[in-house]
Write a structure and sequence with these properties.
6-stranded mixed β-sheet, 16 strands, 744 residues, 26 helices, 4-stranded mixed β-sheet
């Protein structure tokens, strides 16, 4: 169960299977699983009846929750169980209505422990590298909070004197109170403005620091790649951006609220005691009663629902962003109606979760409204006998009411800000989980939480078993000058990251200057996996790899990445352009954020690389937009073939010793493919290509063929064969059908 929770949580519970070429992908075993990936389900569209059914489920009209389903969140275990019995799996909207409201990220929601962990999460900022500035700003903010609170106490006395003067019809005393009130306004206006400014500044600096830390961890040691491959987390982008912002705002707001309430309580404590000790004791008892009732009845529920709302909103947004990124493919397939139905399906799920949250918020409001409205009458009921007996003045009655509500409000901060606390608890869980996974991928122990959920324990056990069986591939930098070749593999075995399936083993080869290796074989046999292992993004396996240094090698994937920015930025990627908007080459500690690669190419070099890639006219085509400095959405403007040639232009600029091409010419015609390979052979000392085209044979000197293994009718460890290209071409001629594609 824990393993399923961890694997299925990424995209709302989609089934995950392992493709050795592409890593973990969603597996549409049924039409319901298509809905898990953003599809429309068994019905062509999500109708109002489905939404109404979800609302009925929320209201309790439909008995949808089965015992074995209600305890799970974010998985399709219940659907699997029903399918195994021949029953129709529930729709995604029904599944959303059946989720356990008290589970977040595979853990049981715990209100108080989570709030305590929120404080531990805050410590990494106030005890981090910016602790001096952080603590100074915090101190200034708290001092201003104390001053504003003190001013409110002074105001209560002025208000008391004003009310007493009015009741006694004492005109001089009344205008004296008015004069003091004006003085308070003159002081309060700039003081409160400065207080708000410092508060916003603290929030901004804290958020920037936390987001930079998460971004640094996310892009370190291929953590972003590993999180996607493992599929153990939903929407890390939302956690880094929105959850970090909301967490900081909630933390800062609650910190100020607590400080202000404590100061107010301290200031009015003596006032209330001097008026009526009985009223003070009653205030404490009343607050304790309200806090216990609120946390016991609503704590875990609202925390879990807030977490689910964040997750489902992110799923809806992710589906719309994905549709925008693949707009051309959707249009060519005519899939607009299907995607619209998918978006309506996600919206129905969001509605189901939000309706449950609204219902519980209504219940909370019902209690808190009755609880808080009672505070307007209770002080008067207790102090009224003394007023009627002539023991206190009328102004004392109003001051007692204000003091009571102030002290009671300080004690009732849990009740008054309960929804904000529930949101903070959910955001803490999401950020803490992200820190845990990023620190785990980084090989360090997370300092945010020492507690491990059941899903974490299962994943840890899986990783330990997998590591014990597969180990980690040893890596070193090849020394080409010492005769070690350009690339050396020694008894290399590669395992898929998630399932731990062994693709092949004992692969040994050495590429020297002038060698060009073509990797061939059926789809799914592990050709691209070899390049991932050489690049270091897949590390699970055994054996050793001696590869060129990062600055001496270039990897070209089949689908090139086109970053945001100018045409110049496309060519120098992954380095940056010095005047590129929004670019920061160094972090706050002065550590470089960019690869040790040259980025200061002059225009002549850039034009030369474009010319070599067959794109010499590209700057002229966009001359009106700025030529090399034209800023476009290049992944939309350029065709697939042009994008692949941009990638080759990057290679020609870098002039690496070794080039690794993963079907990098699949979108090129034979003439352009020939031009690219001829130029590469003259630029690079060694080349490794993955491909299926017969036209690639003449550009390579060696062939490495992978064949999938079969054991008792199931997939087993594959085999490999290394041969000279002449020998490989002879084997093609001897194939039974005489077709090379039987071998490829």
């Amino acid at each position: 169960e824990g393993r399923e929770d961890a694997r299925a949580g990424a995209r709302g519970g989609a089934n995950i299977e392992e493709d050795p070429e592409r890593g973990p992908v969603a597996a549409p075993s049924t039409t319901e699983s298509l809905v898990e990936r953003g599809g429309a389900g068994r019905e062509p569209e999500t109708t109002g009846g489905q939404v109404l059914g979800a609302l009925k489920a929320v209201a309790g009209f439909n008995n949808l929750v089965a015992p074995n389903v209600a305890s799970k969140m974010g998985t399709d275990d219940g659907a699997k169980g029903n399918a195994a019995k021949g029953a129709k799996p529930p729709s995604r909207v029904k599944q959303a209505s059946m989720e356990n409201d008290e589970v977040v990220d595979g853990r049981q929601a715990e209100f108080w422990p989570t709030l305590l962990r929120a404080l531990k999460l805050a410590k990494i900022y106030y005890y981090g590298d910016q602790k001096v500035r952080a603590r100074v700003l915090l101190s200034v903010m708290l001092v201003l909070c104390a001053l504003t609170t003190g001013l409110m106490v002074v105001f209560s006395y002025v208000q008391r004197d004003m009310m007493t003067a009015l009741s006694e019809k004492n005109q001089p005393a009344f205008y004296d109170a008015i004069n003091r009130y004006i003085i308070i306004i003159v002081i309060a206006a700039p003081l409160f403005a400065l207080y708000n400014y410092v508060q916003n500044l603290v929030e901004l600096e804290w958020r920037l620091w936390l987001t930079r830390l998460l971004v640094k961890k996310y892009f370190s040691k291929h953590a972003y790649f590993a999180l996607k491959a493992e599929g153990t987390m939903d929407n890390p982008d939302q956690r880094i951006c929105e959850d970090a912002r909301n967490y900081v705002q909630s933390c800062n707001g609650l910190l100020l609220a607590v400080a202000q309430k404590l100061l107010s309580m301290g200031a009015f404590f003596g006032v209330l005691w001097s008026i009526s000790p009985t009223l003070l004791v009653f205030c404490f008892g009343y607050s304790l009663f309200g806090t216990i009732v609120t946390t016991r009845l609503f704590g875990s529920k609202l925390m879990g629902l807030h977490f689910q709302a964040l997750r489902r909103e992110a799923d809806l947004r992710f589906g719309l962003v994905r549709a925008r990124e693949h707009a051309e493919s959707i249009a060519l397939y005519g899939g607009a109606k299907r995607e619209a139905a998918a978006a309506r399906g996600f919206l129905a799920i969001v509605a189901a979760v939000l309706l449950r949250k609204i219902a519980w918020s209504r219940n909370l409001a019902l209690f808190t409204n009755a609880y808080e409205f009672a505070t307007f009458a209770l002080p008067s009921l207790i102090i009224a006998p003394r007023y009627f007996a002539g023991e206190v003045e009328f102004g004392v009655v109003t001051q007692a009411g204000m003091a009571f509500r102030t002290v009671q409000g300080a004690l009732n901060i849990i009740i008054g800000r309960f929804e904000q606390l529930s949101g903070l608890a959910a955001e803490t869980e999401r950020l803490e989980r992200l820190f845990e996974l990023l620190d785990g991928l980084d090989g360090t122990t997370s300092s945010t939480s020492k507690k491990m959920s059941k899903a974490d324990e299962v994943m840890r056990e899986m990783n330990e078993i997998r590591a014990g069986r597969a180990g980690t591939i040893a890596r070193s930098v090849v020394d080409a000058s010492g005769g070690g070749g350009e690339l050396a593999l020694e008894k290399l075995a590669v395992f898929t990251p998630l399932s731990g399936r062994e693709l092949w083993r004992d692969l040994s080869l050495t590429l020297s200057a002038g060698d060009a290796l073509l990797v061939v074989g059926p789809s799914g046999c592990g050709k691209s996996s070899l390049l991932r292992a050489v690049a270091g993004v897949w590390t699970t396996g055994s054996g050793a790899i001696a590869a060129p240094a990062a600055e001496d090698s270039v990897f070209l994937p089949q689908a090139p990445y086109m970053p945001l920015g100018t045409l110049r930025a496309q060519l120098v990627f992954p380095a940056s352009v010095s005047d590129e908007e929004g670019n920061f080459d160094e972090d706050d500690e002065g550590e470089t954020l960019l690869p040790r690669m040259r980025g200061d190419f002059d225009d002549a070099e850039l034009y030369g690389a474009l010319e070599a890639a067959g794109l010499g006219d590209l700057p002229e085509r966009f001359k009106a937009e700025g030529g090399l400095d034209a800023t476009m959405e290049w992944s939309d403007v350029l065709s697939a073939g042009e994008q692949q040639r941009i990638a080759f232009a990057r290679l020609f600029l870098r002039k690496p010793r070794c080039a690794f091409l993963d079907e990098a010419t699949s979108a090129l015609d034979e003439r352009n493919e020939a031009a690219m390979y001829e130029r590469i052979r003259g630029t690079c000392a060694a080349v490794v290509s993955v491909g299926h085209r017969s036209t690639l044979l003449k550009y390579h000197t060696l062939a490495l063929r992978f064949d999938p293994g079969v054991v008792n009718g199931t997939s087993g460890v594959g085999t490999w064969t290394l041969m000279r290209m002449e020998e490989y071409q002879k084997s093609l001629a001897r194939s039974p059908s005489g077709s090379m594609f039987n071998v490829f």
